[in-house]
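Batch queue: ligand-bound targets. Current item pairs a single chain with zinc ion. No template structures supplied; prediction is de novo from sequence plus SMILES. Inputs echoed for audit trail.
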Amino acid sequence: MSATTTIRHRKSISAKLDSLTPVEIPRSGKRLYKYNELPEWQQDNDKIISGYIRETKSVKGCLKSLLQFHNESINIYTHLVPTVTYLVLLVGLSDMFLVPRFPNSTVMQYLMINFFLLGAVLCLGCSSFFHCLKQHSESHSHIWSKVDYMGIIIMITCSIISMLYYGFHDHYLHFKCFTVLTIVLGTICTVFALHDKFNSKTFRPFRAMFYVTFGLSGIVPIVTGFWKFGAYEAVRRVQLKYVLFEALFYIGGAVIYGFRFPEVLAPGKFDFIGHSHQIFHIMVVLGSICHFRAIIGSYIFMHTGMHQSGFVLVR
Ligand SMILES: [Zn+2]
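Prediction returned. Tokens below.
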């Protein structure tokens, strides 16, 4: 065998090994993988063709991927940054701004703002963890997907209950009844979300519909408020304008998620930036900001009896 033949032979073996490596050896290195190079359990959205982290089999490997730009990066950071922001608000907002502004606030009155912030931190935080750690292995992905679904249910529950409080703060029976109803619905949703089938690919549109339906249960107390207080006051009690924007963002995000728009129209074109899950994440954050604005407005309305626009809480 000549030297040239040996080199050629080596090159051919090396090429064969290279082509096998991505499929056979799990690792978290810099190489990103294509959809058809992934193990079956990782194949979720066939319209996103490239940019995958293949199963890492290590938490460290997953955490290392935070420093790499891949097709989950925007999903992770669109929820991680708001998680930290809401956490800062949760720790300091009530004590630093709201209580000094309205010293006659009851514990419940300002705790309800923190209640929503806690829901937002849990939801967005669980989502960030899920998107970061789901590439560990099938079992980890399975567990974290349930954590992610639970986070969404917690945020919807906290959002509705905080709105109920400011809407019915002086009609405690209504507040209690609707709160119990929301907790019952949240519990039913949890039972569904923990079922193994809920996480399957074919259930994607159903999942989207499922959360929208739970969120829309908030219509019942709003209609009750209209009947009880009249349109003018009901609108101001819950700051309906922001609640409607919130619903629009959540429903719009869920529809985009369910139909996998826009990657379904151009597979492979939105792998890193602009695919449906990223848009869904951004719309969830926008929806949560609307809710936060609504409850702050409700809180001010509760104390001043009139709507004050803007976030300025100091005299
Ligand atoms: Zn997500």
